Amino acid sequence: MLLEQFTIGPYQNFTYLVAEREGGEGVVIDPSFGIEPVLTAIDAKGVKVRYILNTHSHKDHVAGNAEVKARTGAKVVAHKVAPLQQDVSVSDGDMFDSGRLKFSVVHTPGHTKDSVLYIFEGNVATGDTLFVGECGRTDLPGGDPSEMYDSLLGRVVKLDDGLVVLPGHDYGVTPTSTIGREKKENYTLQPRTRAAFLQFLKE
Fold first, then answer.
1. What's the domain count of the chain?
2. Cβ 77 vs Cβ 53: under 8 Å
């Protein structure tokens, strides 16, 4: 499998190019501002980009959608409530393929109503739901601390420990992690009651 992580745009965004192999089918995850290095890699690796996967609708995660789509003809995938022009609307539990790659969708509202994780081939693209050592903000429009509690403590912590975490921003001590490591080291994933979590987010 081909998996390349790009730090682009003014906000330390991670955009990912994933393919079954060089010259094979693949996807771009969260194309941010300044998408040119990713387009160059698509051409250099001969990747046939079938889908553009958006983990959520914030501008810094979708700014490159139009350019990638114009260059490759890929279809935009987003949660069905995302306020985006989307070709494929997904919900929790949906699955889809790109060549030999298999993707599954986990709905994780909290940062936004349309936040999702994409699990594929031992990896999980977490967008702004989970960073290395941190979680996404809940004080922006569409954010909800109680929903973030359900997403983190009800869904993320139940994922396989071995999944490699591919976050939406380069905010951590390392560019990637694992679910197992985050469960041990990420203070936002430590066991708390809902009330304690909501108070913790205010601090």
1. 1
2. yes
Chain segment 102-123, per-residue pLDDT in tens: 999 999 999 999 999 999 999 9
Domain containing 40 equals 2-202
Contact between 55 and 61 (Cβ < 8 Å): yes
Q: How many CB atoms lie within 10 A of CB 66?
A: 14
How many CB atoms are located within 10 Å of the residue 158 CB? 10
In tens, the pLDDT along 167-178 reads 999 999 999 999
- Do 111 and 143 contact (CB within 8 A), yes or no? yes
Q: Residue 82 maps to which CATH number?
A: 3.60.15.10
Tell me the CA distances in angstroms from 120 to 84, 162, 166, one per residue in order: 23, 12, 11
pTM attached to this predicted model: 0.98
